[in-house]
Amino acid sequence: MTKELNKRPRYNRWYKVTLPECVSGDGSGYHFYISKGHSRNLLIFFAGGGVVWNSFTAAHPTDAAGVLAGDPGFYWANLRPVTEFMNINQGITENRSPLNYFYDWNMAVITYSTGDFHIGRSSLRYDENDPEKVMYFNGFNNYTAAIEEIKRIFPEPVNLLIAGDSAGGFGAAALAEDIMKRYDPERSRVTLISDSSTLPWDRWKGVMKDLWDTVPEIYGKIESDNPVADWLKSVSKTYGTGVKILYACSAKDEVLASYWNSIMGNDYGADPGIREEFRNVLREMVYDLMDTVPGISFFINDYRFVPDMPGGIIQTGTIHTCIRNPLFFTGKTDGINMHEWLKDMVNGESYSVGINNL
């Protein structure tokens, strides 16, 4: 188990920072993680872990028993030992191996257990037969407390990388401008990346406003059915080329396609038709951002859960998130892995990888 931070941190070790005033979705405690490197660079990473948009999804959190029974649930409601394994020492957050360009950066992982893209401030009694069952959409309050501690511990980075995967990619895009108010982009070279974060739906703005009680400064930037695209456009409009904006995803993301199918009113899951529809949605998003966000770069992979079967029959879709996955280092798209591409991006280069996968 990771030790609690109670004194000056040692280099290249992960520490847990408990925030007593914060809560997870089921009302249990909340903490985030930090690792101190020798460099003056900083990675702020928003973790993912599902989403809640109504009482039904609130009543179906993810747990080990459900996963084994074939019910993946819709969100992580707490921070248990298994979520520690998911949050640190994976992909970009590997802090001991020099093979990772980012290993010696200062790192902060803002954990996620509230089903609200890190931007909620409310609660929901989701079972009319049991008023004791409460879902806490406390993501924004957790983020605010965490970022204040992160700024205190790592006050003036030279390079600042704001990143997130899945629901955390929504959070990174939504909260990047708030982070910029705390870390002056004129004193830091800033890169923003969302990995595997798109679920177009014309009701998100209402969910954020009416269910999660998101602050107007965040939901007010949404002008379409694609919140991440709108938030990235807002960052670009506000900061121009002062923030390097990136987006990554797999072409037929199995998890996102399954969530999207569920949001459309169907059972959670995807088939070849749904996966192809998701790829079309992703293609539209990428081309729209190409036209509206100057200097944006993309990494679109086609890594699959299982190999194609004889005859070209694909049994599943493509992976969900790469940035905290071994494929961050080993997967090749157009001859380059995501690690090499992201290293180039934070060092000022600008090119896209895998656009043909769309």
Structure explained in plain terms:
The protein is an alpha/beta fold. The protein has a domain of 248 residues: 3-Layer(aba) Sandwich (Rossmann fold), CATH 3.40.50. 32% of the residues lie in helices and 16% in strands. The strands form 2 sheets. It has a 9-stranded mixed β-sheet, with helices on both faces. Strands 6-7 form a two-stranded antiparallel ribbon. α5 packs parallel to α8 and α9 packs across α10. The chain is globular. About 2% of the residues have low confidence.
Strand content: 15-25%
CATH topology of the domain at 9-249 and 295-301: Rossmann fold
Instruction: Please give the alpha-carbon distance between the first and last residues.
Output: 41 Å
**What's the rounded overall pLDDT mean?**
93
Radius of gyration: 19 Å
Q: Are there runs of 5+ residues with pLDDT below 50, and where?
A: 308-314
In short:
This protein is α/β, with parallel strands linked by helices and about 350 residues long. The protein is built from 12 helices and 11 strands. About 30% of the residues lie in helices and about 15% in strands.
